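hey can u check if this looks right to u? its 598 residues, i copy pasted from the old doc so theres a chance i mangled smth
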Amino acid sequence: MASDYYQDFIKEAFIDSIRSVLIIDDDYPTFDEVLSNQHDLNSGSQIEKEKNWYENPERIREVIRKFRSNKPPLLVDIHDGRNVATEAENTIAGHLYQSDLLVLDYQLDKSRKGDGTRAIEILRYLMSNDHLNLVIVYTNEDLDTVFDSVRLGLLGPSKASLSEEEMETAENLIDDADEKKTDFRSHIYQSIDTEQYLHSRLNEQTYLGTMMRGGKLYSHFNKLTEDAGWKPEERKLVLRYILGQFEKSQLDVMNTISPEDAFRWSTNSTKWIKGESIFICFSNKSDDDDLLSELQKALNDWQPNPSRLFLAKLRASMDEYGVVAQAQALTDKYALAYWYKRLLQASESAREWYVAESVSRHSDQLMGTILQRVGDFAKNLIEAEAAAGDIDQTCQARFNVDLTKEDNKKKAFREHNAYVCSRKPEGSHLTTGQIFTLYDEYWICLSPACDMVPSQMSPWKTNMFGERLPFIAVRLRPIKKKWPEDINTNRYLFFQVDDGVQVFCFNDPDPSKVSSLPHWSTFYAEDAGRFGDDFRFKVWRTEEEKDGEHGAGRRETNLVIKHHDVKVVSQLRDEYAINLMQKLGVSLTRVGLDFSGG
């Protein structure tokens, strides 16, 4: 649970940023319904009172009043869920995009007691969009049952699977035990249900160990397997097999359309679910209907880390102060006019590059005003955290990372260095500082960015090379052993590869060869370096081709132009790319002087 002062920052970042609420509940009155009722009264027709709010309007009025008495008051809209289809596209899609908070009734169809299918479809839809969605699932049903149903309904099938041979072995183990003890098969299957399945999905790396240590959740399963005399590996195999069989029985209610991996939930009495773009808490309609307090309680229990709070505050500040920041960003109208003229004059091939540059400059202007407000929020949080106690303990509590352990500290250093040094690749064509793979080698493009714009190829280059753009790249040397001691000699790079952050050197990594020359080569990028799918492009390079033996073991070699498919996997930040480009320039323009010693 978050400490008292930390809860205040959670509230500021998430709760105070809420401006609008959409309630989807088939018991709530809608504007259409109220107006239709008034029309019926005026015409003398009988009003059909199908909804429960007619019997107890005060409870619903109190829910809405609490939203509107918030500071600032929240804009409240109501949908009764009657036209909500079970397909991805439904009639409330526009409302969902415009609302900061969704209050969702679990049972939207009174004719189907305890059925939350429509509500779960709406939650799946929210999971598939790019907004952060705050949701309160509101119900009269048993909360434990609803919590289980929503988790199963949002989870996709597990990616872990057994081979046919493993499944056959598990079946044989169960068959043998069933022959020795009546009803063993039915009992072993009954020992694994929703609770155990969800535990295994939340703890995919540790649930087998929990079972082997005699965890209470698996007590029935353990008793049966001990009586059967199974070995530890056999017990693990059968548990995985039965969990897989349980999953098969639930596939019709699980999320096979928009599953996601980063899915977690609470394990205590405060119920919440967190996905990439959704946070869901649960509230019983019989409780006091202060739903914002229920949401705050769940957010406190989730305890988002400080970095997430910074970004939430940034997003909220953009919504709140974006117009003011926009006005300030538009003051330099002469520069703006000049940028726009360049966009209009640019050729079709160059326009994409100029558009990216212009958007980046506008973004920088806009963020200048916003970042000051986020900085104030971050400063206040840091001061409160620093005064609260032990710094290492605070970091472990917030991020679940113990920085007193040497391995964790090294990993933190690597991730930090990779962040300050590199970023994900961007753009539509090859440019300075982009790192590409050629077989198992990593190369970095170090030609000036102005020479890499496809539309800026000079006439002599076009006449000589056609659409093949020449550029210089340096082969990076991987550091596979211990951390280099001369890490700050401005020749090392950190960036993400498939198996995590790796360290590379610009030249020979031997500490005694700090000034060694880099291994560079000239490449020719097909289609002027424009990217295909997934930052892939084609290059040509001059290479040796061996042509057999020629007397006394001598080999004849020829120079040939070879073609390669390559892919950009990372990109240095500008200051690091410029540094390496200058180092390469020094090595290419060095002067050899005919000096002698004294």
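The chain has 20 helices and 16 strands.
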